[in-house]
Each structure stands twice: as C-alpha cells, then as structure tokens.
Amino acid sequence: MFQLYIGTSGWSYKDWVGRFYPRAQSKNFDYLKYYADFFNSVEVNVSYYSYLKPETADTWIEKLKDKDDFLFTVKLHNDFTHEYKFDRERIEDVKTILSILNDADRLGGLLIQFPYSFVLNHDNAYHVKNIIDAFGEYEKFIEVRHKSWYIDRFFNFLQQNKSSLCTIDQPNIGESVGFNDKIDTANSYIRLHGRNEKGWLESINKFNTKQTFEQKSERYNYLYTPAEITDLGIKIKEIAQRIKKIFIFFNNHPKGSSVANALELKNYLKDNSGVKIPETTLQAYPRLSKLVSN
Question: Whole-model pTM above 0.70?
C-alpha cells in the first residue's frame, strides 16, 4: 500500500482568505496549523525566494507537533536553478533547513525546479549534476519542463543518485512535457500547474521582464474541472500501483483553486469516501459540497 501525501504549493496567499482561511481571524490564528487540519503535506515555496532561518523550521515543527504524519517538501532557491550561481555558504544554508526537518522526521524531500528555457545540453547536464551532488544525502525531486530531458540516460542517472523525476501537468505548448505516468521510481512527485494556456504563453513572452507577483501568477490561474480531476485520479492510481510513496501538489494557487482541486483529488484517491472541507471553501466552491465526509 502506498503512502499518499497531498497538498498545495505554498500555504500563505492573501486571496485564500475567504476562500480557504476564514475572514474573521483571532489574533492567535495560524495559517499553517489551519492548513494542516486539511492536508498532510505542503510544498514550501518561500525557500525559492529567500534563504530560511533555522528558527523558521523549528517553529513549523513546534506548530505541528500534534500532526505526526505531516511532511514538508522544500523548493530549492532560484539562485541554484534559475540564476546559475551558488557557493558552499548557500549550500549550507539550504542543508541546515533540510537537516532540521529531516532530524524531526518532517522532510519529504528537496524539490529542484528548472524553467522551460532550461534545455538538455552538456553545460546544463553538468549543472544538474553539481546540484544533485551538493545535496546527495537527501531525497531529491527534479522538475524539468522541456522534453529534451526525457531520455533514458537522464532517468537512469536520477535513479542512481537518490533522485526522482517530477511528473507535471501544464499546458501543452512548444517543447513542453506532458503528464507522464510511465516513469518508474521508488517515490513519485506530481506537480499540477493548471492548464491556462493563454496565461502560460503570455508569461513565456514576458520572460526576463519585471513583473508583479500577481502577473507572474496569472499562468497558474486555473481551476481543474471535475472531469479533469477524475482523469488525473485514474492516472495517479495507476502510478500508485508501482511506488511506495507519492507526493501530489497543486500549484494553481490564484483564488484558492489549488485548495479546491487538492480536496477533490484527495477524495477521489480515497475512493470517494469523503473529506473534511472548511465552510469558506464550500461557499467559494459549492460543487465540493457532495464531497464532505460524514
């Protein structure tokens, strides 16, 4: 029987208030503790933009001391994957956080996500190897968005280096990769970005231009339909027959769509047995009302 960890990419978004988090909040209200009442894992995105302080990870662990099965996956800082610059000090900064979570049995793994523009060539392959070697002792999940990487030699290299290739769902544009349910690894990591083709194309056209967070996020502004959730669920159940552990994160975060879709998929993978859903999300997404557990 496989272990299922499902949640969203990040948990702190302003537009989730009133759609997932309650509008009226006490002074002691905590987003992470609330989030953990509905999901057993989260993909840490803030680590992509800044280097976390050790006390931050300590605080997360303390907050969730009553959630024994909750795991964090940590997204590697963009200095490594997009800016192509890192040194020993930055490696140690990341490893400190990973070690704190790992020692507390709270680490799911390290997400290493490269952009669509990152194509397979000698220099880029060497760059991937350097990053993987730097974090050799940790479980690693590699997301590449260009199909040039989808060759057996790369798959074999990952398997030999405590790494797994992410399965991703995104708009089918140019040389992008589609949802691949045929990759065999011990653990599976699935990222669901939505299918907003127009927003994705606009984002590609504005690559390397200054944009606000909202503008950058527009590509992820998408709500999967019930039929699409069912189709994804069928594919994921096929994957689950071959692996030990599966992480699933929805990254279509604008307007709280990732929360709604994660709850829908969680229910499907639990054989439609029902899930706990907050009242705010039921009001924002009435179609979820039939999924509420008794």
Answer: yes
